[in-house]
Write a structure and sequence with these properties.
The complex is a heterotrimer of chains A (592), B (291) and C (319). Chain A is α+β, with helices and mostly antiparallel strands and 592 residues long. Chain A is built from 17 helices and 23 strands. Classes of the chains: A alpha+beta (592), B mainly alpha (291), C mainly alpha (319).
């Protein structure tokens, strides 16, 4: 035997010996899986679903969405009751629970977590306006809260902000510049989670990997493959009241949830969140003996899981082995045009502008959403016109479906009518994130464009290796055609229609760089209205404007199909409720 | 004198099989270039995920594209990448190496040694990735990145060989007869390194193809088009779901071609220098150049 | 004979001579990442940034200052061993490396060692009778190994052992105890062996055959010494230097760059993985730390190889 192998064998033997001494597994372990890796656990950076999943469990927000009620309903979490809102909608008075405490951490004197106070709420919001925070969420409150106007940079966390006042140790008074009916919703987002100033200052730059919050769990381990969470001893939110969470025996009985009524949060001894970006690997990890407990079924596997699509029925061998749930995502995917490029978008010459519109509409007609749905979304996605998905109250079921119907003939007619020929068509840059699926989507799009006479040589794919690079390309308006997904942070069409709002143009969220004064004016009008038929009418009108202008190709709301092992008692929902559902997860007595 | 004696073994049996395999690949690639086949690799011809059939010999992929057409087009891409990288990289390495070796201990040599040392000390794939990133707006960013990293090994070997050659009698004779350095390098040094350059070009050809597969797999490869690397990246998403078409096609094609070229390189090397023990991949160049 | 003193001066000279190399490596990579690398500001911005915010983050990342100044500051910090913080997570780079390098080592070293051991054993058997059956098998094995792309190997191994046989975890690094370690290390080990066996086998065989053909071995053979003794006593010893050199030079590679493909496809949170993420997202502090560290290790490896050469072969003297 070669000598090099000996030490290794020795090490193996030692390890095996060590194995026998390992401690017993805790009782209730749940292995969750998400499809991305959070970069930072700082709430001020948690604007994606992956970071939010962890942040809402390590920290707590003032409000959250009810576990089971649909449509989504807010409920207090750190707050004690809903805010008292003044008649004019400008003053919010929010009281905190008196039993909320931060988890124990070396950042606090003596290492013992202290109670959460109104000053923490004020600090947590102010913090978004300190340049060192590099907040990703300040735009939610900028220009809304008095004293945090456009361009405001706080240099010091002690600097007073007129609209953020501590009334007493447990009460915050917030003054808004103009009505912001979505304000309470923003306080349910992970971005608004309450942090402790001691911890932020103690950890400095590394605060993002040293979370200290008042959520149901504390972080035990965190790397690029998984996070391990353990219960926070100080977490007191009373007992679970299933009825208040929207429990409906008819809909929820099959999930085995009834038994968690009256128990205290959180129910798990250990929560593992595995980060598995590759779709099929997620599936195999789920079906393998030692893998994760839940899977969001990837499209590649739909044949193996589904017996029927409409209505959804699982294959018997799947249905007998796992629990399942499906529901629409709170968001949608779409293609958009860069209206800032005069070759295809806005143009000072009305004649050319009309021809550009014809070209955009033709490309939209060429788009085959049914085929896209079949190839990439199990064939289960909901296709709808414009930017108001069916999950929102403002969705219009009777809207004209022309903009989402595949019609190469109409596309050719449009091109011919507007005088577009092979030799005068513009050269377009199609931007994509460099992933297998996005590349395939591009090839699909190119084939459709070719089918209406748009030559492949005029469609240049530009792949960006990371989302940041893609964002840069969009933010600097280098891409004429793009594919994006937009996740709603709250269930209100204002959140999706802001994608077309002129002042949000790139680098802002309006990647279309759509500039239409009529739209902007109506949008501003709708934004300060409370929910009601008038606002719904305005939202629908705004949606029709962007459809009419052929700014967007879309859209499609994906259907999330979850399977999980039967010993896990839960209703997984990564949208809206997001990470908040994990505090309700329980494990049946005789493990799987 | 070794160089002229190398040719007699080249036609021996060892070379016949690999050359035949390479010829088949070349025909496949040439057909794509001439537009005879493999041109409709991007067209959506059928419904997705069909098993092999008379129309689609290797079945169709997720979108309904013909995997066999993509395989053929990928073969052409492999040759394009391989040639576009190996020829310039070899020439660059030969020039720099000959120049440095002809003037040992002077500044060109010092700069070369510093540069190759520097490039050696940066992890290979990181460097290629960073380079192709740096030039990401260029359509041939990946190829340029490979050229800029691959030339150093050739330069080192040619430098060593030049050091040896310049001690030989005929170079001294040429110097005495009044030829300039540049002419000596061109007429006497470079021709005597041809056998090395052939082997190096073949090695780099393989390295380029393999690096393309790896970069495309990581999402940093070709901007547009189809390649075996792109097919393997697709395969990595679907193989666990039981779709083997892309994987089997691309990996078999890659394996066979690389095997054939490696075989050919071995034979070339053996006939040139029976004791040579080169390594066939710049990724392993630390070992190859230092040992 | 080498005295400890001469060895020390050699090390000192080596390290001093490495300074231009270190400068070169950092300069090249700094230029690449600063001038051409991805602009990380966009990775750090929210969903609805204003142009001022873009500018502000770019300023915070130091993008508004002249290149030479930034490079100078970087070198200063490097000499003080201040590696800074990852821009993405805020984690200190030292902490990041302390967390990921051991994972890379744990995941890849077994395969690395096993690959060398296996290759050495096979090469010995092959060199025993060049042209024999084992030798032909080894030739086939090594050309197959060199032709396989690591991409193919990793995909295939994962499918076979993770899914089809369901013996080992498909991916990840949920290592809590020895049992879970053994389960997680299996597939990376096989991948490492498959990736390196071909090259190693070919190299070792060539070295061993060459040594056997050298006069001392031939003489010993002519005197009728048993072949096994010649192989283990003389040949292995003579071939030790090139073999050890090869091993020494591979160490920085697995230590720092890990194996990109193995780690990223199998979801192992090692050094290769974070480096790859840093390249694509433009996380400059992480990237520069990794590159500098690997350059230093490279220099250390060079020095170690020289020292080894002296230890093994006393004929080599300081020139």
């Amino acid at each position: 035997m070669p000598p090099a192998r000996l030490p290794w064998l020795l090490a193996l033997t030692l390890l095996l010996a060590a194995c026998q001494q390992s401690e017993p597994e805790p009782l209730k372990v749940y292995r969750h899986a998400i499809d991305g890796i959070p970069a930072s656990l700082d709430p001020a950076h948690a604007d994606d679903v992956y970071a939010a999943t962890l942040v809402t469990n390590l920290y707590d927000t003032l409000y959250r969405y009810k576990y089971l009620a649909r449509p989504y309903e807010l409920t207090p979490s750190l707050a004690d009751g809903f805010p008292e809102v003044s008649e004019d909608g400008l003053t919010y008075r929010i009281r905190l629970r008196d039993d909320a405490r931060f988890a124990d951490d070396e950042a606090f004197p003596g290492g013992v977590g202290r109670p959460v106070r109104a000053t923490d709420v004020v600090y947590s919001l102010k913090r978004h306006f300190l340049p060192d925070t590099r907040s990703r969420g300040d735009w939610l409150w900028r220009d809304r809260i008095v004293g945090l106007d456009e361009g405001t940079r706080l240099s010091d966390p002690d600097a007073p902000v007129e609209g953020l006042q501590v009334e007493d140790p447990l009460t915050v008074k917030i003054r808004l510049r103009r009505p912001y009916p979505q304000f309470t919703h923003t306080l349910a987002m992970a971005l608004s989670a309450i942090v402790a100033r001691e911890a932020v200052e103690h950890y400095g730059r590394s605060f993002g990997v040293n979370p200290v919050g008042s959520g149901p769990f504390v972080l035990a381990r965190f790397d690029e493959s998984r996070a391990v969470l353990e219960p926070n001893e100080h977490f007191r939110r009373g007992v679970i009241d299933l009825d208040a969470e929207g429990y409906d025996p008819a809909r929820h009985d099959r999930f085995g949830l009834a038994r968690i009524d009256g128990l205290t949060f959180p129910l798990l001894d250990r929560l593992e969140v595995h980060f598995i970006p590759e779709p099929t690997t997620r599936w195999t990890s789920f079906t393998a003996s030692s893998g994760v407990d839940v899977v969001m079924v990837p499209p590649e596997l739909s044949e193996r899981v589904l017996a029927e699509r409409d209505p959804i029925r699982l294959r018997p061998e799947i249905a007998s082995r796992y629990r399942s749930w499906h529901g629409p995502e709170a968001g949608f995917v779409f293609h958009g045009f860069n209206m800032d490029n005069p070759e295809i978008g806005h143009h000072p010459d009305p004649g050319r502008a009309a021809r550009n519109r014809a070209l955009r509409c033709a490309l939209r007609d060429a788009f085959d959403w049914q085929a896209r749905n079949r190839a990439f979304y199990h064939g289960l996605g909901q296709i709808f016109p414009g930017a108001i998905p069916p999950i929102l109250p403002a969705y219009d079921p009777d809207a004209d479906a022309d903009s989402i119907s595949h019609s190469p003939r109409r596309a050719r007619a449009r091109l011919a009518e507007a005088g577009w020929q092979t030799d005068n068509l513009p050269r377009l840059v199609y931007g994509l994130e460099s992933s297998v699926h996005q590349r395939q989507m591009f090839e699909q799009f190119r084939a459709w464009a070719q089918a209406i006479g748009f030559p492949a040589s005029r469609l240049e794919a530009r792949a960006y290796a990371s989302f940041g690079e893609y964002a840069r390309a969009l933010g600097t308006r280098q891409v004429d055609l793009f594919l994006l997904g937009w996740t709603l942070a709250y269930p209100d069409a204002q959140y999706s229609l802001q994608l077309f709002y002129g002042p949000n143009a790139a680098p802002g969220a309006n990647s279309f760089n759509y500039a239409n004064p009529t739209f902007d004016q109506l949008f501003e009008q709708a934004s300060s209205l409370p929910a009601g038929p008038r606002r719904t009418r305005l939202y629908r009108q705004l949606n029709r404007i962007v459809i009419e202008d052929c700014v967007i190709i879309g859209s499609l709301a994906r259907t999330r199909l979850f399977l999980w092992k039967p010993h896990v008692l839960m209703l997984p929902d990564r949208d809206m409720v997001g990470g908040h559902f994990l505090r309700f997860v329980d494990i049946a007595d005789q493990g799987g | 004198m070794k160089a002229p004696a190398t040719t007699h073994k080249l036609t021996a049996g060892g070379l016949r099989a690999p050359l035949a395999v390479i010829a088949v690949y070349l025909v496949a690639a040439a057909g794509v270039w001439l537009g005879w086949w493999g041109t409709d690799w991007s067209g959506i011809q059928a419904s997705g995920r069909q098993p092999p059939s008379p129309e689609h010999w290797l079945g169709t992929n997720l979108l309904g594209q013909d995997i066999f057409s993509r395989l053929l087009a990928g073969t052409a891409t492999a040759f394009e990448v391989g040639l576009l990288v190996s020829v310039p990289a070899t020439l660059l390495g030969a020039l720099v190496g000959a120049f440095a070796g002809y003037f040992p201990q002077r500044w060109p040599d010092a700069v070369l040694m510093w540069l190759t040392g520097t490039l050696d000390a940066i992890p290979f794939y990181l460097f290629v990735i960073a380079l192709s990133y740096a030039m990401r707006d260029h359509p041939a960013a990946m190829q340029l990145a490979m050229i800029m990293t691959f030339w150093t090994l050739t330069a080192r070997i040619v430098r060593a060989e030049t050091l040896r050659i310049r001690q030989l009698g005929f170079v001294a004779a040429a110097r005495v007869s009044g030829l300039g350095s540049w002419q000596i390098i061109r007429r006497h040094v470079v021709p005597h390194t041809v056998h090395i350059l052939l082997v190096q070009a073949a090695i780099l050809f393989v390295a380029a193809i393999k690096a393309e597969v790896l970069l495309s797999f990581l999402g940093l490869g070709l901007q547009d088009g189809v390649s075996w690397g792109i097919m393997l990246a697709e395969a990595s998403q679907e193989i666990l779901a039981g779709h083997y078409g892309n994987f089997v096609a691309a990996s078999a094609a890659l394996l066979l071609l690389v095997l054939a070229i490696n075989r050919m390189t071995d034979e070339l090397q053996r006939s040139a220098d029976p004791r040579s023990r080169g390594s066939a991949d710049p990724a392993a160049r630390h070992e190859a150049t230092r040992a | 004979m080498t005295t400890p003193g001469s060895r020390r001066t050699l090390v000192a000279r080596r390290l001093l001579g490495a300074l231009p190399l270190l400068l070169g490596v950092t300069l090249v990579s700094f230029t690449l990442t600063v001038h051409f690398g991805p602009d990380q500001a966009w990775e750090l911005l929210g969903r609805n940034p204003t142009p001022e915010q873009v500018e502000q983050v770019q300023r915070q990342l130091g993008q508004d200052r002249p290149f030479l100044m930034r490079y100078g500051e970087f070198l200063q910090r490097l000499t003080r061993l201040e590696l800074g913080h990852s821009q993405a997570s805020g984690e200190s780079v030292t902490g990041l490396l302390a967390r990921t390098v051991p994972v890379s080592l744990l995941a890849l070293a077994p395969g690395f060692v096993l690959g060398i051991a296996l290759a050495l054993a096979l090469a010995l058997a092959a060199a025993w009778r060049p042209g024999g059956r084992i030798d032909r098998l080894c030739r086939g094995l090594s050309s197959l190994g060199m032709s396989l792309s690591v991409v193919i190997t990793v995909i295939a191994l994962q499918a076979i052992f993770g899914v089809w046989l369901d013996w080992f975890p498909v991916r990840g690094w949920a290592v809590d105890n020895a049992a879970s370690y053994l389960a997680h290390v299996a597939v990376p080990t096989m991948a490492m062996v498959a990736a390196n066996l071909g090259y190693n086998l070919r190299f070792f065989r060539a070295v061993l055959v060459a040594t056997i053909n050298e006069p001392p071995a031939r003489t010993a053979l002519a005197y009728g010494l048993p072949k096994s003794r010649i192989l283990t006593r003389y040949v292995l010893r003579a071939a030790l230097l090139p073999i050890l050199t090869r091993v020494v030079f591979s160490v920085p590679l697995i230590l720092i760059s890990g194996s990109l493909v193995i780690e990223s496809h199998l979801g192992i949170p090692g050094a290769g993985r974070i480096t790859f993420d840093a390249v694509t997202s433009g996380d400059q502090p992480v990237l520069m730390a990794v590159v500098s560290l690997s350059a230093v290790l490279f220099v250390v490896a060079l020095t170690a190889a020289d020292l080894l050469a002296r230890l093994v072969d006393p004929r080599i003297r300081a020139a």
